[in-house]
Amino acid sequence: MINRNPQLNENGALQHLLTTEGLPLSMLLHILDSAESFVGVTERDVKKIPLLRGKSIFNLFFESSTRTRTTFEIAAKRLSADVINLNIAVSAQSKGEALLDTVDNLSAMNADMFVVRHAQSGAAHLIAKHVRSGIHVINAGDGSHAHPTQALLDMFTIRRYKHDFHNLRVAIIGDILHSRVARSQIHALTTLGVPEVRVIAPKTLLPKMVERLGVHVYHDMAKGLKDVDVLMMLRLQNERMKGANLPSAEEYFKYYGLTAEKLSLARRDAIVMHPGPMNRGVEIDSAVADGKQSVILPQVTFGIAVRMAVMSILTGNQA
Amino acid sequence: MINRNPQLNENGALQHLLTTEGLPLSMLLHILDSAESFVGVTERDVKKIPLLRGKSIFNLFFESSTRTRTTFEIAAKRLSADVINLNIAVSAQSKGEALLDTVDNLSAMNADMFVVRHAQSGAAHLIAKHVRSGIHVINAGDGSHAHPTQALLDMFTIRRYKHDFHNLRVAIIGDILHSRVARSQIHALTTLGVPEVRVIAPKTLLPKMVERLGVHVYHDMAKGLKDVDVLMMLRLQNERMKGANLPSAEEYFKYYGLTAEKLSLARRDAIVMHPGPMNRGVEIDSAVADGKQSVILPQVTFGIAVRMAVMSILTGNQA
Amino acid sequence: MINRNPQLNENGALQHLLTTEGLPLSMLLHILDSAESFVGVTERDVKKIPLLRGKSIFNLFFESSTRTRTTFEIAAKRLSADVINLNIAVSAQSKGEALLDTVDNLSAMNADMFVVRHAQSGAAHLIAKHVRSGIHVINAGDGSHAHPTQALLDMFTIRRYKHDFHNLRVAIIGDILHSRVARSQIHALTTLGVPEVRVIAPKTLLPKMVERLGVHVYHDMAKGLKDVDVLMMLRLQNERMKGANLPSAEEYFKYYGLTAEKLSLARRDAIVMHPGPMNRGVEIDSAVADGKQSVILPQVTFGIAVRMAVMSILTGNQA
């Protein structure tokens, strides 16, 4: 049997978390179920358990992201691991050291896990293929390819508020073209059995043949939001707004920014999600971001638990 | 009853440490007394107690200050807390994320405490008003407004060497105008009952109507230092020296730099303090900085104990 | 008796690790023997022992080196110490605070150990002379002077693979002139009794009168590598390649780059070492770097154990 999924070993156990694409339903559910127990840990007075004591986890950020790094750092510390932050952009890489030499070096220091953020798609896969057995890699975002822990925390959030995936209409709204988050969300939603996943975006912000991912395409919010249960907003990267893809932030907000008015087109009990950080007044209005239907901050809370779950499953110490 | 002090809850317990202004005498003394016990911890062979185990403390530095960040990081680690350093200037903020969105995010990660440094006066207050009950904010310096832990460690140092506040003449010397340290010192000294607080500075470095704070104003070191028990030097910011407020560093040193000669005008047992880092040869001569009357390094030592005390009082775990 | 070695106290106990020069044979062997036991710790499931619990170790890096900082950070964390990273280039120093004022400050925070990296030769010595008894300094590289922990891990690696120093031919190859690593290696090899230490380099990359260090000088790889047991490659600094000392990286590789062909001139069981990060295709060919005779990654692994050994010997808690 050819092992087509580099994330799983021959027994189907999770070795790395690189993408939600091809992750079996049972594994998705296992991660979500594990995360439930970690939500409890993060709410305790002493938010710390000794599960990963003596493990060395490296936050290997080739692309700067204090926010994402922080979520992994907290998750690891609450599991009692030793965490080492490496911002490679400003150090070894500037000395010309190659990516895999850096990884080999840190592996030789008896690393247990790498949390990798990189501007290039495929970087985490490359590292995962390279490291020796027993070292685990978590993709914390690679180029426009994947951001699986973000998608998993989104799934966790949806399940918390909607309980069942099998009767949902979910809309992903915004810059699908450049979004690793959107890709990872679509794969996870599909595997979890969501019958209708929509993407809503201007043509210039949609990948070619996006329909092949099994989604329904809308260019118009009025139509796309109709009867939707879950709205997953995407962050509009500032750098995109200056490019040829978009006329202006104001123009974008007018057509695709989520306002209370547009939200009223969805189901009355629809939830609003955003991976953060938000551009208020660009892709989302503050009234919605801070409104009753927003679950944006719970997403963050669940994100810590989901990362703790992934880390503990990977190290095989899951209680 | 209107709760006019955002630092205290309705029972008068400390919720945040934002400023020494309006902090009741009993609370000041409670912090100083608690710090006494933590001085012992920092002198032990194993400088660590499990008081804040499992707590998540975020050093939220919107203005870079390795030195101040280090004091809080050490204090937190010696209390066994998990510490996360965030230098926001170089990350989220540059993505356009607003201050309060950042705080909301970190709060959603189940933060217990924020140590906030910000170039704008009022930033720590803004955050304290915003966070939910149970999350504590320590102001580690906001603009030219306040730096309460510095003032508290100064008070601790004075008490250690002078025992009683009620018969002291204290002079604060230097750039009062831009100094958050001076403001916090004046409020604390006044509340603790120091009968005579003097400020000594050129007119261009004094706030308008500074007398309203209850201090005596001197423009001349010879007069201002006469019979003084405590000299609190201020750091002259380099950026001020280039401005219109001052002719030159040399000129400043001639008139306001503390030399052995000028120090001899104070009481023979007067102590010399400085919040650091010092500009030797500008506001203070090395002979004085390293001299017998200097208590500048003990200030640093006590600073760790004072921060441990504040952190433990805030989290309500004070033994 | 005059204590000529600032690293040792009057009883010959190690107080600081500043250089391998003048370090007695017994002390070298004590460090290597201690490191043996720590190799075991780094291979355990829980890679952590409580030896330095409650100790405060400061990584004081005045010159940026994520890689070296990481090795010390991991070593300290696996000993359960509290570690504080300070990148001084970007903070206090830019406020004009002098080196020794910074050190005094951190010492006043009850520091136990400073790991110092500085672009200027002698910086670690200066700090070691300055700090009070009980605070230990490890030189993590100062200018072109010394890098003792690198040399010690190299000795550990040689002993592991060659067992005995007394019948070895060791060649150090590359930019001897600017290399603190080479200086520290030569002193350690000589003290450990290696009968023949060679240096191989173009004349422009050799210090004047290098023979005085007791080494044999070669300008030609064919002659220099003959019958050698250990090849210690040096990193060619990028900045050197642009200077007048070298025609080009390609030219350098042709004459001094280690290829399989050149390696075949050494003994068949010779080992190849490199302190990293490597410039593949400049001082070393990938076929050799990743080849059977390379012990470059084991060097990294042993480096953690050696640093743990040094830290634990210094704090006098060595079990």
From TrEMBL, chains A, B, C:
Could you list this entry's UniProt keywords, alphabetically sorted: Pyrimidine biosynthesis, Transferase
User: Top EC class per UniProt?
Assistant: transferase
Q: Which superkingdom, per the lineage? A: Bacteria
Pathway(s) per entry: Pyrimidine metabolism; UMP biosynthesis via de novo pathway; (S)-dihydroorotate from bicarbonate: step 2/3
Stretches assigned to the Aspartate/ornithine carbamoyltransferase carbamoyl-P binding domain: 15-159
This entry carries the following GO cellular component terms, namely: cytosol
Question: Which reactions fall under this protein's catalytic activity?
Answer: carbamoyl phosphate + L-aspartate = N-carbamoyl-L-aspartate + phosphate + H(+)
Identify a single GO molecular function assigned to this protein.
amino acid binding
Q: Can you give the residue ranges of the Aspartate/ornithine carbamoyltransferase Asp/Orn-binding domain?
A: 167-313
User: Is Transferase included in the keywords of this UniProt record?
Assistant: yes
> Any idea of its EC number?
2.1.3.2
Q: Where does L-aspartate bind?
A: K95, R180, R235
Please give the biological process terms from Gene Ontology that the record holds. 'de novo' pyrimidine nucleobase biosynthetic process; 'de novo' UMP biosynthetic process; amino acid metabolic process
Where, in this chain's numbering, is carbamoyl phosphate bound?
R67, T68, R117, H147, Q150, G276, P277
Assembly mode: Heterododecamer (2C3:3R2) of six catalytic PyrB chains organized as two trimers (C3), and six regulatory PyrI chains organized as three dimers (R2).
Give the family per the record. Answer: Belongs to the aspartate/ornithine carbamoyltransferase superfamily. ATCase family.
Q: What is this protein called?
A: Aspartate carbamoyltransferase
